[in-house]
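Exercise 7. Given the components listed, write out the predicted structure of the assembled complex. Treat all entries as one system.
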Amino acid sequence: MPDSTLSLKSTALYDRHVALGARMVPFAGYTMPVQYDGVLAEHKWTRESAGLFDVSHMGQARLIGADAVATLEALTPTDFATLVPGKQKYSLLLNAEGGILDDWMVSRPEGEGFLLVVNAACKDQDFEILARETIGNSQFEVLDARALLALQGPKAKDVIQAVCPAACELYFMECGSFDLLGQTAFISRSGYTGEDGFEISVPNAIVRELWDLLLTHDVVKPIGLGARDSLRLEAGMPLYGHEMDAGYTLVEASLGFAMQKSRLTRGDIRGIDRIRQQLAGDLARVRVAIRVLEGPPAREGAKILSEDGAELGIVTSGVPSPSLGYSIAMGYVPPAASDVGARLKLEVRGKSYAAQIVTLPFVANGYHRKPKA
Amino acid sequence: MKFTRDHEWVEVTGDTALVGITAYAANALGDVVFVEVPAPGTALKKGDSFAVVESVKAASDVYAPVSGDVIDANTDLSSSPDTVNASPEGAGWIAKIKLTNPAELDALMDRDAYETYLGTL
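Answer.
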């Protein structure tokens, strides 16, 4: 390993990635596979078949006890009292001003308390806050002996049917604990690609065996972080450090679905005054989806201009979309400039190019939603 | 063919040269999905960024290996950027330059020296 990577951590699957010919890169303090066969091929494979991701660098933790809901609600805008066993919610860790410190997936498998999956780059901060700010009867535990795999794509369910059939009963944003290879796996039906898929938390001790088992299925190929980024962008999903950070609120970031009306009514949300003002219309910028109509891809940092050249905002992520064949981006503009269909310009290397506000997601999702009763 | 440490190549014929990126660079970039080539007439100094090659993940500048004036550019790359991956040191050429300081060629590596250099990376 080169000297520069000596201080990097690796996941339990490091040797598997290297054996598969992955290109390893530093990411959030870990050496991680950015690609195996190539980003384009991996992206398309996930959209058409099933892609296997090692996301063990992400933080996993558990909160239990009668006051676990109170602890979580003090830190987030989410109603956790209504997160019943077997369900999962998207949530946001907020600072005192309502700025976003991280985004979380919180699941509640029956009898296991609340399980958190948090961003790798934020996990030390998040866990320090959670350990410090547990309320009353709640106990916080970092699950650092667990690995996390994501199996994503329209054929993921066929593989799970063979490996852990009970987990196929789950609908989108449902979760459970299952026996898998003699150990307890926490499985949720969700992911970060817009496809139907599963996230599988297992003890490090069996993750190599599970990885190998999943790859024995011809429909499964390993997918690196490169395609993970282009897939989530097409799905319109924000990435911490790009579409959001402590300088943004959930209103600006268009992440209102992480906040429930019950919490807004109660008003016990960090930064509530600012959030209410913004919801009432006092809002300087809002996250939008942009289709590039000509010229090069517009990437993070590209200026967003009005048609007559006035500066409106900035691109936070952009990629030449492998599924759509044109470039897409997310960024921030004032609400008055955010109407779907509005024309604008993007500045790349000193020249400006035509673009247009479109709706999110860019690519229709394939979630396995529970039929409406 | 001569090479730079930034992984460009130059193929000289008389007082003109074709330039492009090496197979090593094309492989490192991954699937090329967009190429911005220079306009004919552009005057380049050695080391100027004169083209951009983009993969899904990133945009990479291409630097002029020698000084010269752009007399032609490979506009086919706008409709088939993947030619840079398929034939980086052939059909994937980026620009044709009329050399203004041919002595600069002496500082570039030949194929053997470039291969040796790649072995150190």
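Discussion: DSSP finds nine helices and 19 strands in chain A. The mean pLDDT of chain A is 97.
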